[in-house]
Amino acid sequence: MSQKITADAARRIALSAHGFARRRTATPGPRQFASVIDTLGALQIDSVNVFERSHYLPVFARLGAYDKSALDALTHRSPARVTEWWAHEATFLRTDDLPLWGWKMRMLRERDLADDSSWANAHAAELDWVRRELAARGPSLAREIETDVDRARGSWWDWSTVKHALEMLFRWGEVAIAGRTSTFERRYALAEQVLPDHVRATEISRDDAVRELVRRAARATGIATASDLSDYYRLPVDFTTQAIRELHDEGELTHVHVDGWTRGSRALDVWMPTGQVRPRAVSADALLSPFDPVVWSRPRAERLFDFRYRIEIYTPRHKRVYGYYVLPVLIGDRLAARVDLKSDRKAGVLRVQSAWAEPHAPADTVERLSQVVRAAAQWQEHDSISVGSRGDLSNAVAQTLRASRHETP
Length: 409
Known about the structure:
This protein is of the alpha+beta class. The chain has helices spanning 7-17, 30-40, 56-63, 68-75, 102-114, 119-122, 124-137, 142-145, 161-172, 191-194, 197-201, 206-221, 226-232, 237-249, 298-305, 365-379, 394-401, and strands at residues 3-5, 43-44, 82-85, 91-94, 140-141, 175-180, 186-190, 224-225, 253-258, 262-263, 266-267, 270-273, 286-287, 326-331, 334-344, 349-357, 384-390, 404-405. The chain has a 6-stranded mixed beta sheet with strand order 13-14-15-16-17-18. The chain has a 4-stranded mixed beta sheet with strand order 1-9-12-8.
């Protein structure tokens, strides 16, 4: 018979699994960064830099203020320890974990080449040319090699032919990322030029790889539905279902039901790693990236936190509800607020464009949110904070921070 878990316990289990029940270190460094990556399995990459690039934020949320250049040394330079691939969306992940994706790289390549009308088949000559260029040049930026080929722009994200070819070879595993520049440009290389020999020599069958990825997704989420586990690493649902069945049969996953987790009148099937830690309390005040694993699955965020979240960057201004780059705020064990932040780097000001409370926000949300905002400003090395005119918490936050005010555009 399945165990019964309360919604409050499920929320605490998830936050603990996501790394929010650990004591912070005074000066986080490479060991702590590696621990965050190990816990989450991946740091999602996004180019939006209104407040801060997304992959820096999950580390800040769990470790507090740290030297970003120290994380860059791990993620942006040699891929000996951390590399990139599409482990959820575009992500940083441990280089030693890359073989877990070999089956998907092969699947993508076979799918592209099996379609006579695909871009890959229509541009086979260009793909070969790019392979030869990388072999001759070594690690290179796209712009460093694309001047030698046709610069005509296509319709696919308006990328050049070279950029498109590099990204396709990257998805197939023939190309790896050799690091990034200070302006966040990818440096591409043939896999054999930069990946460790043991990584390239390791082959894992699809079934074994998917089972291991589902096992890791279960550890990273703590408590999850099959769709949560499938989404975590963007695995096919039928592959995930088979892996869950096998892990359950082997005693690694426990079947439970969570109060309120239903589809219609039916209770959802929920899975936990056997022996999962069930903390009595979690108290972690933190600013979350839109792409933090806590919220990157919007249905899961609603189920766990009763928190409906959408990114409004691409929403016309007059239709936005909360703001342009709104970040969820974790207060204790609830998503209790959201703030729209902008780093005015030229002026040295953190601009709180809006601040909003959730219906279940605790009584001390203003004070705790203000501390989170102040810590973010200090981490970003801003000299001051200015609070805008939108949101039901804006006036109180501005007063608590003794911040200047501005009119939110």
